[in-house]
Design a protein that fits this description.
Blueprint: H1 2-33, E1 49-55, H2 68-80, E2 84-90, H3 96-105, E3 112-115, H4 117-125, H5 138-141, H6 146-150, E4 153-154, E5 157-158, E6 161-167, E7 169-173, H7 174-179, H8 197-210, E8 215-217, H9 227-238, H10 255-269, H11 282-290, E9 294-300, H12 302-308, E10 318-321, E11 335-342, H13 348-363, H14 367-375, E12 378-379, H15 391-398, H16 413-429, H17 434-456
Parallel strand pairs: 1-2, 1-3, 8-9
Antiparallel strand pairs: 3-11, 4-5, 6-11, 6-12, 7-9, 7-10
Helix pairs in contact: 9-10, 10-16, 13-14, 16-17
Length: 457
């Protein structure tokens, strides 16, 4: 009887195990038939690599919604890379830099960012980024101008994948000059549009006299945003460099640099510059121009022209002009450069996934060119031209020949730029002479450069 009972229990257990096994098999079969286990395009969280992409509004907003275009990029990327989940976070130009500083300080940096060399190269020097050399073979690097590659590297390490570019310069309200009958004062009939400071002054006085309700030109000295505009303006007005050729010291406190800033101070006295420039930031300056209240803007490019277009509240034609120089010689224009970088967060899988997203954004056969056009910029690649129609893009392509090496790759530049605007304010308010302001800027900046060079060794 005992043997019979044991046999019965054993049979029951075997039947239960068999039924559980068959149920599991039927569930697996159902999943596979629905595109699950082996063919599921949405892998389980265990299989997915999740990365974060922080982005400033580098792409034109789609349907007026910031971040909507980026979401379309991610959706298209996931069609080809279903095993990578991308979490997007949009930054503002006002609060984004500080948010990045906090994230880096607390070890919560994103995996990928689309930004500019000023911050990216500083992070590269501090060892915060993953090198991108494996993504940039010689044929790619050789298709990018040395000035742009120089901004993308620290030593022989590539830390930023260059994407969109365009020289920074000025813009003018062409419609205004047509209305006051002074269009011939602008150098638009010259192929390279170069002009002298004296010619520029004549155009400013024409606005003051014939359109008294319009501010002739702009300037700003409230915060670090848009510092390239004030740098380019002053260095060309005086034919000076901002830093010396090896980036080891400030050069703008030279006699020619001082003359450039003195011109701005005098123009402010003469009512040729927006009043209260010491308390205006780059955004305030842009708004005055886009509202048709100011004739010249000092911080423009083909990229910004495109990005600013939705913000224009007056219907006028804005055209690009190089900064004037004392003798009308070729200007030195800093290049706008946007590019993508990958943070080194001690996770190889995330770094490789982020590199795939970088490659998709820049090089995908369908989306690469589409993404570039959405920035409104020229390609960083010399071989990619003719993406747009219109004289202003043609001129921007031509003005590439004026591109010079920017100071943004100097050791300690992130700190150097913080000293610039306070000294500009002092000069504009005339609490210091132009020489005193630039000498103090040089003293503080040279110390910061030396300190950073020592720390980066």
């Amino acid at each position: 009887m005992r043997g019979s009972k044991k046999g019965s229990v054993l049979l029951v257990i075997m039947a239960l195990v068999l039924s559980l096994f068959l149920a599991a098999c039927s569930q697996d079969t159902a999943k596979e038939s629905e595109g699950g286990k082996d063919t599921d395009k949405n892998p389980s969280n265990e299989k997915q690599v999740e990365i974060t992409w922080w982005n400033f509004p580098n792409f034109q907003a789609l349907d007026g919604e910031v971040g909507k275009y980026e979401k379309e990029i991610i959706a298209a990327f996931n069609e080809k890379n279903p095993d990578i989940k991308v979490k997007l976070e949009m930054l503002t130009f006002e609060g984004g830099p500080e948010k990045l500083n906090v994230a880096i300080a607390t070890n919560t940096a994103p995996d990928m960012i689309y930004d500019a060399p000023g911050r990216i190269i500083d992070w590269g020097k501090k060892g915060l980024l993953a090198p991108l050399n494996d993504m940039m073979p010689d044929d790619v690097k050789n298709d990018i101008s040395p000035a742009l590659m120089k901004q993308s590297m620290v030593g022989d390490q590539v830390y930023m994948y260059p994407f969109n570019t365009g020289p920074f310069m000025m813009a003018v309200n062409k419609t205004l000059f047509e209305d006051i009958g002074e269009l011939d004062l602008l150098p638009l009939d010259r192929p390279d549009r170069t002009w002298t400071v004296a010619e520029y002054e004549k155009a400013l006085h024409a606005v003051k006299e014939k359109a008294p309700g319009i501010i002739p030109s702009g300037f700003y000295a409230k915060s670090v945003a848009g510092d390239q505009g004030t740098r380019g303006y002053i260095t060309n007005l005086g034919t000076s460099r901002f830093l010396n050729e090896d980036y080891s010291a400030v050069a703008i406190n030279s006699e020619s640099g001082i003359k450039g800033l003195e011109w701005v101070v005098q123009a402010s006295r003469d009512g040729l510059v927006a009043p209260g420039a010491a308390s205006l930031d780059a955004g305030d300056h842009n708004d005055l121009f886009l509202q048709g209240k100011m004739a010249f803007a000092i911080n423009y490019s083909a990229v910004l022209k495109s990005l600013f277009a939705p913000n224009k509240t007056e219907d006028f034609e804005d055209v690009l002009l190089p900064y004037p120089t004392p003798d009308g010689s070729d200007p030195k224009l800093e290049p706008f450069l946007g590019g993508l970088a990958v943070f080194n967060n001690d996770d190889d899988k995330k770094a490789e996934a982020a590199k795939k997203l970088v490659d998709f954004i820049v090089n995908d056969p369908e989306w690469g060119e589409k993404n570039l056009i959405q920035t409104g910029g020229l390609s960083a690649r010399n071989s990619v031209t003719g993406l747009y129609e219109g004289s202003e893009y043609e001129y921007s392509e031509l003005a590439r020949k004026f591109i010079t090496d920017p100071p943004t790759i100097a050791d300690g530049y992130a700190e150097v730029r913080t000293f610039w605007f306070p000294e500009l304010q002092e000069a504009i308010l005339e609490t210091k002479s132009a020489k005193e302001a630039l000498d103090e800027f040089a003293e503080k900046s040279n110390a910061a450069i030396e300190k950073a060079k020592a720390a980066n060794k």
